Amino acid sequence: MTIDSKLRHPEKAHKPDNPSPRKPKWIRVKAPTSKAYNETRRLMREKNLHTVCEEAACPNIGECWSQRHATVMILGEICTRACAFCNVATGKPNGVDPLEPENTGIAARELGLKHMVITSVDRDDLADGGATQFAQSIQKVHDLSPTTTVEVLTPDFRGKDGALEIVIAARPDVFNHNLETVPSIYAQIRPGARYEHSLALLKQAKVLDPEVFTKSGIMVGLGETFDQVLVVMDDMRAANVDFLTIGQYLQPTPKHVGVDRFVDPKEFEEYSRIALEKGFLHVAATPMTRSSYHADADFAALKAARLAKLRGE
């Protein structure tokens, strides 16, 4: 689906363009051309499923789809919020598709997925924020593809009492909710959300199910400082977050917030070293890291790290 950026983001149409600086040599992606990529795309279209890979213009889509990794985006392709970094369309969403959970389960089975990531747009228009659709999708994957583990990347469900409980009761293997950035620029980057609320959501997920792996991520290159990133790490650990992702922000269109800087790969290595010292079970910190990038391998690493910790290794 191709939508003009001004139609996708009418609230951004009046804003001046933010020129994007030339990408450094370490930001490179291959064009998607493989047979597996085309088969994955075909299946998503046949089942009327959306993917965050396409809607958010993820730079890793060629690699991931070639390996039959796709992150299904439930609850439609139109978001009720307008974050400054996000390429997903903003506007009035359509109704909820009752066949979506089953089609999600079928996709997991037909792609032969070991690990599936399910995310969504924000649906502030729904009484439960879409939590029931998450729960039904998790259950259908469990039913139709029993060997597939499930990771959810949810909205913040702000103002939707009981929504988190509905999702956790469906027993996802990983509960992910991204903080996205540091508190000092939150209002600019993530309007409509609150840093403290997102932290509380992550902490409560672990309270509701101590066995679920919790995960959160941020982008760098938005104007944050090194020390501010370390504070976010501490806040995540205080909320018992197990897995941290850090990736380079890449500007989707000139109407989105501009790139402040391209972070050197050595800085990502330093973030990873410090995060492990702070007690995270697993860390993915590279320029091209995204929430669902290599999610299956990361889940295996999470399980191994937990087991090692229990053994005192």
Question: How would you describe this protein?
Answer:
This protein is of the alpha/beta class and 313 residues long. The chain has a single domain (29-310), classed as Aldolase class I (TIM Barrel). 38% of the residues lie in helices and 13% in strands. The protein has 12 helices and 10 strands. The chain has helices at residues 5-8, 35-46, 52-55, 61-66, 100-111, 131-144, 163-169, 186-189, 195-208, 226-238, 265-277, 295-310, and strands at residues 50-51, 71-74, 78-79, 89-90, 115-120, 149-153, 174-176, 213-220, 243-248, 282-285. The strands form 2 sheets. An 8-stranded mixed sheet has the order 1-2-5-6-7-8-9-10, with helices on both faces. A two-stranded parallel sheet has the order 3-4. Helix 7 links the parallel strand 6 (149-153) and strand 7. Helix 5 (100-111) runs parallel beside helix 6, helix 6 packs parallel to helix 7 (163-169) and helix 7 (163-169) runs parallel beside helix 9. The protein is globular, with a radius of gyration of 18 Å. It starts with a helix and ends with a helix. Residues 1-14 have low confidence and may be disordered.
Condensed summary:
The protein has a single domain (29-310), classed as Alpha-Beta Barrel (TIM Barrel).
